[in-house]
Design brief:
- This protein is of the alpha/beta class and 340 residues long.
- It folds into 3 domains: 58 residues, Alpha-Beta Plaits; 82 residues, GMP Synthetase, Chain A, domain 3 (2-Layer Sandwich), CATH 3.30.300.110; 171 residues, Vaccinia Virus protein VP39 (Rossmann fold, 3-Layer(aba) Sandwich).
- Helix content is 24%, strand content 33%.
- It is built from 10 helices and 17 strands.
- The strands form 4 sheets. The chain has a 7-stranded mixed β-sheet with strand order 13-12-11-14-15-17-16. Strands 2-3-1-4 form a 4-stranded antiparallel β-sheet, covered by helices on one side.
- It is globular.
- The termini are far apart.
Length: 340
């Protein structure tokens, strides 16, 4: 079967395999092969392989010893992975526990299986969780802190590691590709202002590219994790983390930013005046919104123009559908350039 594989020299193979494994990118269902001095390591997601690694499509034999949850259940369950946590969304209690038991008994790398117990709620956008099952032998990373909550994970994304507690902060692994798209636009020396920074999924990779970053969030636990993650990823000297309402902080950073991230769908339009205040003479805003499919970009663009014109020329450089959010509703991003 043809799968994406990282190609490395055999002498570098173990280092590369460990690096990929740390990011949960090794496709354990396929064999690592070698030919003519090269090692071919199958990966789960080609898009998330760190830059600098050579990825090619290649035939790889399937491992016969790997057991998937579906093998034990007789059906394909729906779940997503965040670090070594597996998340399900099941209303039926018996079915939820059946799936959780199969996940733990399978060959998936997992420490805990969680079920969504509420909708995202409140100003900090967190939800309740039910712990369905935990691995009998957790990883050293989890075992090193017996008092850590089951909802705390370390998620790896495009070469960066993010510690977070799902019960105390908001985080969506589904936006990894979108975050990477934006981070790749950042140049060393830029000044970046993230208005709703969370645990740092935008700030950390941007700082790693050499930007000076300010991350603001009303959730004190998110800011604690942002500081921890800045240190974890060796970018603390380029990250300022502020626990406050961004509307109360904007005046301190007037005319400062070269780039602004506004990832607060549903209500980012309430903060466009603050974004215009923070923007420098030439500034790019990444504005996220959730709108009806009939006019997904119009409301956001109108809100930005109302806040920025006539002080700025406003140019919409990218209109991007990030994902479907609900029937007839889209999560979108506007990349907007403000030029004074």
């Amino acid at each position: 079967m043809e799968v994406p594989c990282v190609r490395v020299r055999r002498e570098d193979g173990e280092t590369a395999r460990k690096h990929l494994a740390d990011d949960d990118l090794v496709a354990d269902g396929f064999e690592i092969t070698h030919e003519d001095g090269w090692l071919y390591i199958p990966v789960t997601d080609e898009a998330m392989v760190p830059e600098g690694m050579d990825v090619i499509d290649r035939d790889a034999p399937e491992r016969e010893t790997q057991t998937a949850p579906a093998d034990l259940l007789g059906f394909e369950p729906s779940y997503e992975r965040l670090g070594r946590a597996v998340i399900v969304d099941e209303d039926d209690v018996d079915r939820a526990h059946e799936i959780a038991d199969a996940i733990v008994a399978s060959d998936l790398p997992v420490d805990v299986v969680l079920n969504k117990a509420s909708k995202v709620k409140g100003e900090t956008r967190v939800r309740d969780w039910e712990v369905l099952a935990e691995a009998n032998e957790p990883t050293e990373e989890r075992a090193s802190g017996d008092d850590r909550p089951s909802t705390e994970v370390v998620h790896r994304e495009y070469g960066h590691a993010f510690a977070l507690d799902l019960a105390e902060v908001y985080f969506s692994p589904r936006l990894a590709t979108e975050r990477h798209r934006v981070a790749e636009q950042v140049a060393a020396g830029e000044r970046v202002f993230d208005m709703f920074a969370g645990v740092g999924p935008y700030v950390i990779p941007m700082a790693a590219r050499g930007a000076e970053c300010v991350g603001v969030d009303v959730n004190p636990r998110a800011i604690e994790y942002l500081r921890e993650n800045a240190a974890r990823n060796d970018v603390a000297e380029r990250v300022t983390a502020i626990n406050d309402d961004v509307r109360d902080v904007a005046g301190e950073y007037a005319d400062w930013a070269d780039r602004i991230v506004m990832n607060l769908p549903h209500s980012a339009d309430e903060f466009v005046d603050s974004a215009a205040a923070v923007a420098g003479d030439d500034c790019t805003i990444h504005f996220y919104d959730i709108q009806h499919e009939d006019d997904p970009f119009g409301p956001g663009e109108r809100a930005i123009r109302a806040a920025a014109e006539p002080d700025y020329d406003v140019t919409v450089e990218t209109r991007r559908e990030v994902r479907s959010y609900a029937p007839h509703e889209l999560n979108v991003c506007l990349d907007v350039r403000l030029t004074r």
